[in-house]
Amino acid sequence: MEVRRLGKSELIVSKLCFGSLTISALQRNFQVNEAEKLLIHGFEKGINFIDTAALYKNYHLLKDPVKRFGRKKIVLSTKSYAYSRETAEKSLVEALKGLDTDYIDLFMLHEQENEHTLRGHQEAIGYFIKMKERGIIKSFGISTHFIEGVKAATKREDIDVIHPIINYRGIGIVDGTIEEMLKAVKEAKEKDIGIYAMKALGGGHLLQDFQKGLEFALSLAFVDSIAIGMQRREEIDANVAYFETGKVDPELVKKIKTASRILHIADWCSGCGECVKRCQMAALSPGDKACSSGEKIVVDPNKCVFCGYCASACPEFCIKVI
Ligand code: SF4
Ligand code: SF4
User: The domain spanning residue 39 has which CATH number?
Assistant: First the structure.
């Protein structure tokens, strides 16, 4: 598996990053032993980079496999919505404790939209930069679904890494086209900012076009690593094979294509609408309460990118990506 330095950070990461949202309670809700087997399989295949977030609540699934394989051999990236010094400290302490480690390789601010949102998080950024100086975090970055988020981060000197949404159809980019996103990301890379892309397979939408999705992401020389959510050994094997050789066993591809995802809303939904407000993709809308199916919330499968953010906003815990 190819490895690269992640921009100006000192992190050396595998081209394929293990996106762990898929094994969290927001999606497949893995048990500790299932996660351990899957992650160790990925590490043995050459993946050394894991993407997680405070939101995913899955640190307990990652800590043992990382320790078992060797903490120093793995690059851990997490992110939070911290905006103040206190919330930043809380999220960092949670990550250190939850992952049972004394440093985090990459800490990011989650879902940054533009320079205003970054300014609103300035106190948290200040705290993370101090922690970087003390070696508690090794590098600092942002994740974003916005072209404006990429541009705002590029203007700053304190951001080492950007984690933008990139796929050939532009699925999930909130404020423009894939061409505009690529232009912004390229400019970031020219400033030696590390780039690791998310949702190369559109959060599952492009599974049917698995090879085309990967071919596109891998063709972008300015992308250092590509995070892909995986929940089965076959997915790891197929992705690793494609990343290493550009080819995949057709039997594996068949198995991958059966892994399509849906957003399930349980029937105890109260119709409060919190999820509708939370979704940046406008994929949710209030249902027609007069209709006989009685759905309180309707999911537009063409717009949903299975990010799971709505699930974290649901007070009734009734949303899952399955
Ligand atoms: S947030 Fe949960 S309970 Fe409220 S409308 Fe959405 S799915 Fe239903
Ligand atoms: S998972 Fe939820 S928040 Fe994410 S795009 Fe789908 S409906 Fe929107």
Answer: 3.20.20.100
